[in-house]
Write a structure and sequence with these properties.
CATH topology of the largest domain: Purple Acid Phosphatase, chain A, domain 2
Low-confidence stretches: 10-31
Radius of gyration: 27 Å
Oligomer: single chain
CATH architecture of the largest domain: 4-Layer Sandwich
Structural class: mainly beta
Length: 599
Amino acid sequence: MNQRLPGRRHKQTMPGMALILAGALIATAWATEPAPPAADSPAAPSSVLLSPTLGRPVFVEPGATFEALAQVAEAAGPVTVKLISTSAPAVTRSLPLPPDLESSIADGRPLLLRVPADLPERTYDLEITLGASRLVGRHCVAVKRLGPQIRIVHLSNMNIGDLTAPDFDQRLIAEVNLVAPDLIIASGDFVDRTAENPEALWERLPEFFSQFDAPAFIACGDHDDLQQYSKHVAVNPIGSVELGFLRGFAIYDRPSRPISDDPGQQQWLERALTAPGDERLKFVVAHDDRPNLLLQWRKRGLLPNMISSTRLGLWISGSHRDWDGVEYADIVRQTAPLMYVRTHQSSTATRDGATGVSHFRVLDVTNERVAAPGWNSSDVAPPSLPTGLLTCTSECPAENVVAVTVANNHAFRINGLQARVLVPGVPEARPWCLGAELVSSHMIDGVWDCRLRFDVPDKGTARAVVGSGSTPLPPRFTVRFDMPTVLRLTPQQTPEGLEYASAANVNALIYITNSGAVDADFTPLLRLDGDTLSYKVIEEPGPPALAYRLHLPPEGSVTLQPDLSALRTTPGRRELQVYLTGLPALAPACQPLTVITAP
């Protein structure tokens, strides 16, 4: 399922409000007024990198420019600027200095920095040295070409230091990286106020977020110490991010001090949302799950205008539980088509009804719609994903060859999973891939840094083989299904009381053809809702079995008849999956099904 977002806006502005054109911290076609300091913000140190930072990243394409703004006590001495990625294989690249460097530093203007055109697409640290001063922005420059769909992952409250969440959950790193978001949104409450050593946890927070492949846009929560947040995340808890057709705003909105009590912050956000000519889709990240600003707009009679005229499409809030469709339902209904997003705790903390299992949420956003894995029409919002159900493993079956297996144990398909694979090789021998899409490859220090894309069905798996050197001749198969797309199950029970379902009256056939140029030996496996099904081979005698070893010459074919007489599956959207095991790669052929229980 997907939800339509606000369309192109009408040309409207806030009544009685002039647009203030001030020095922009981020280079755009629209002037961006700097965010006002939070009321209780600590004073900035004498030398500090203001933008970009860990929680306020910048997106830039290879060969393009971005702006960096620093506050420097004394700018004497040589200046160097570097982009650094410590993820293996490590990359360090010095950036050319702009010709107006000295005057920009002296006047406090942003530095316009150009990214090399051949720089691998990654998220980099930014290091600026000015004499004795060394300013570092961790994981804040995303070198990336964005497409027409932007994937966002939402991480909600963590409350690290709570008795049930002693540390950051490393399982999030592997699974979120496998989901491959363009941007991570973290909505606050990172270090619990009851933590015994909060300073040590704050020191570890940048390292935790730097392990994600994507950059993070980070709001400040009511448990978070603002001084520590300003030191490690962003100087100001109020700010913005821009990526492609999206523009996002982090607001400082807490239960103890809601944005509705902060006129200066309200005015800044309203001016930014109504900037003339800005047709980008917008989102707001707030820690408080009570949508205080939306309620304030309704009170002031501005709600319909602010939603329809600004293209505000997403309101993303922190919480300990997914939204239940009941709390704040009235204001959410009045702001349609804006989508209200609230996500389960992203740690093992068991606060306020959380399960003790870290969750994250995946949103696929285009300029007009938002979709999510597993979003059914009966859901008030797409479900968040518990950790532990996505895995990626690898092995080296031969020299300069790596096999990667991705498993999706969720009850729904997830497309666009990605795995980074390092393959030894030489520049002259480009990498090849069987069983997945080779998204990118870069030669770095004698290693091909490859990124593979997988589309994996519900409770399914996929295996790809990537290598360098001579490309092997892959076996090729065509799989065709002849069966209804609606599977009606009849409940059954054995004399011993075992319950199952039957669709024995359904006529289903699966045709497999060797469309390649070489003979192939393989074993078909049929899977439905995580179970392996028995099948008959029509061309050969024998009863239904879980697996038959088959041989097909080029253009040879075989017909399988799945046994649907005894199933353990649940109603809903499922996929009948055909795996041809015994081959180097494993990419299932799938038939989408709607499974229903007959009365």
